[in-house]
TrEMBL record, chain A:
This is Glutamyl-tRNA(Gln) amidotransferase subunit A. Belongs to the amidase family. GatA subfamily. Its EC number is 6.3.5.7. InterPro entries: Amidase, Amidase_dom, AS_sf, GatA.
Automatic annotation (TrEMBL), chain B:
This is Asp-tRNA(Asn)/Glu-tRNA(Gln) amidotransferase subunit GatC. It comes from the Archaea. It holds the Pfam family GatC. GO terms for biological process: regulation of translational fidelity. It comes from Caldiarchaeum subterraneum. InterPro entries: Asp/Glu-ADT_sf_sub_c, GatC.
């Protein structure tokens, strides 16, 4: 196995059947897909495509619109929906020659941390089928971990990094505004970003270089062309790299031992060994810093996310989502529709989001959460003005067993991942080892638009700290 | 369900029922989810622990303090093609391409 970025298109086409058959296995064994296209369709598309991604099979999270291919958000509400257009990121990658292989399983409307809140059944972890793969981009992580190469997910509070960590692959949440969200079915738009999963760092660079193209359809995108060109040239340098320095003298990395101490002892041990490796073997300047209150970010995150969710999901009513034959009255039909078609977690977030933003409670909860958001942003920005990277755990524990972290219990899994979503900083999950046969990862957070530096860090650690070729049997 | 039982510090069940109606869900949802909703309220109430750190700060609505820049209000592409049909009228009826 070698990076797609170093594999010629002809070779990729020759391997296509094998890669596809592994994805079919991922669908059958781990429920990683909601829709898997047929081999014939995929082969036809791959052969007729042109561009740097010719012969690349691309699994896409099922909340990212794909023209003519069902996009359900893992919800009964959208079970039969085929979008009439491609999301901008899909359009970009198809134009570059990628072939959509299918739509991956996820938590309904991206609301979940385990991959269990899907109307199409839970996704399973390929390293241990009795455990969760992490969510909400569960299927996209499994598709890469199980002998795949790259995929797309979305990250609202850790939905790329958590499953990347639990499945032992790379997962990047880009800087807010760097990748277009046009065509992503919204959950909480001030927090979420589309981002890539990959096995090899060079493939992450290859995908990101294409994904950062400016898109006028997303008005929250950062418009600076020079900034994009600069990031693209740094990513290109990673793709073309042939060697890597033995040490990283002068690179400054911050971590908080207090935050790490909140994690399970097995996770702590692997991370402490990794910090020693960075200091002793890589010669990085690693410092313990104080990050007061960061462990309390969950409350601010969930208030903001639920308020935005309740607004976004108000669109699902009897005007569009009910057939004329079954229509009786708008009000009754809407209540019936929403009660029947939304899952429990989605309903809870709609109820509590409406509450936190309603008259009488908005100042008490929502506005306070937005002030806390500024506090957290100031705190993280201050640290990143002194350090190149902030290192944090991804998850406080190894992947839980199926059914072990349900509903509100699963929120605690996001304790470390929500921070970059609140602040908009980029963050990359990198596998750093195993504990009892289960992957353990860390996340590095960098300053805004230093996404390429994060990918370079993964490139430096590849084959030293983690083996990108390692895959579950 | 006990009527008037508070969820977290401040949310009485009657209030949740009102919200359920506003969110266009059935009242049974609150009964089914009462325990989970209470626990979410407890999580929400943890926001008070930031009181001394955040009270003097301005709310941050958008992670990058960006201002929305709307696109220029011009039609183009597919929309422009469709608008061409509007000009194609005969006897008061729009003429569309033959299917």
């Amino acid at each position: 196995m070698k990076p797609l970025a170093e594999t010629p298109a002809e070779e990729r086409l020759k391997q296509l059947k094998t890669v596809y058959s592994r994805q079919r296995e991922a669908a059958e064994r781990f429920n990683a897909y909601i829709t898997l296209r047929s081999l014939e369709e995929v082969e036809e598309d791959a052969e007729s495509s042109e561009g740097p991604l010719k012969g690349v099979l691309l699994p896409i999270k099922d909340n990212i619109s794909t023209r003519g291919v069902k996009t359900t958000c893992a919800s009964r509400m959208l079970a039969g929906y085929s979008p009439p257009y491609d999301a901008s990121v899909v359009k970009l990658l198809k134009k570059a020659g990628a072939t959509v292989v299918g739509k991956t399983n996820m938590d309904e409307f991206a609301m979940g941390s385990t991959g269990e809140n899907s109307a199409f059944g839970p996704t399973r972890n390929p390293w241990d089928v009795d455990r969760v793969p992490g969510g909400s981009s569960s299927g996209s992580a499994v598709a890469v971990a199980y002998h795949g190469y790259v995929s797309l997910g979305s990250d609202t509070g850790g939905s790329i990094r958590l499953p990347a960590c639990y499945c032992g692959v790379l997962g990047l949440k880009p800087t807010y505004g760097l990748v277009s969200r046009f065509g992503l079915i919204p959950y909480a738009e001030s927090l979420e970003q589309i981002g890539p999963f990959s096995r090899f760092s060079k493939d992450l660079a290859m995908l990101m270089k294409l994904l950062i193209e400016y898109d006028e359809m997303d008005m929250t995108m950062t418009p600076s062309t020079s900034l994009r060109n600069s990031i693209a040239s740094r990513l290109e340098a990673i793709i073309k790299s042939t060697g890597k320095p033995a040490v990283v003298n002068g690179v400054k990395i911050a971590y908080s031992s207090k935050l790490i101490s909140l994690a399970d002892s097995r996770v702590q041990r692997v991370i402490e060994n990794f910090i020693s490796y960075l200091r002793d073997e890589m010669h990085a300047e690693v410092s313990d810093v104080d990050l007061p209150m960061l462990d309390k970010s969950l409350s601010a995150y969930y208030i903001i996310a639920m308020v935005e969710a309740s607004s976004n999901l108000a669109r699902y009513d009897a005007t569009y989502y009910i057939t004329r034959e079954t229509y009786t009255s708008y009000w009754q039909d809407t209540i019936r529709l929403r009660s029947e078609k939304f899952g429990d977690e989605v309903k809870r977030r709609i109820i509590m989001g409406s509450f936190a933003s309603s008259a009488g409670y908005m100042g008490r909860y929502y506005l306070k959460a937005l002030k806390v958001r500024r506090f957290i942003k100031n705190l993280v920005s201050e640290v990143l003005s002194r350090f190149d990277f902030l290192l944090m755990p991804v998850s406080p524990s190894p992947p839980p067993k199926l059914g072990e972290a349900v509903g509100v219990d699963a929120y605690a899994l996001d304790i470390y991942t929500v921070v970059p979503n609140l602040t908009g900083h980029p963050a990359l999950a990198i596998p750093i080892g195993f504990s009892s046969g289960l992957p353990v990862g860390v996340q590095f957070i960098s300053d805004y638009y230093k996404d390429a530096e994060l990918v370079y860090l993964a490139y430096l650690l590849e084959d030293r700290v983690y083996d990108p070729r390692k895959a579950p049997g | 369900m006990t009527r008037g039982r508070p969820l977290g510090k401040e949310l009485p069940v009657e209030e949740v029922k009102r919200l359920v109606r506003e969110t266009m869900l059935s009242e049974e949802e609150v009964v089914k989810n009462l325990d989970q909703l209470s626990r979410i309220m407890e999580l929400f109430d943890e926001i008070d622990s930031f009181e001394e750190y955040a009270k003097s700060l301005e709310p941050l609505y958008h992670p990058l303090d960006q201002r929305g820049e709307p696109r220029v209000d011009e039609s183009g592409g597919e929309r422009a093609r469709l608008e061409e049909f509007v000009k194609n009228v005969r006897d008061g009826f729009l003429r569309t391409p033959r299917l």
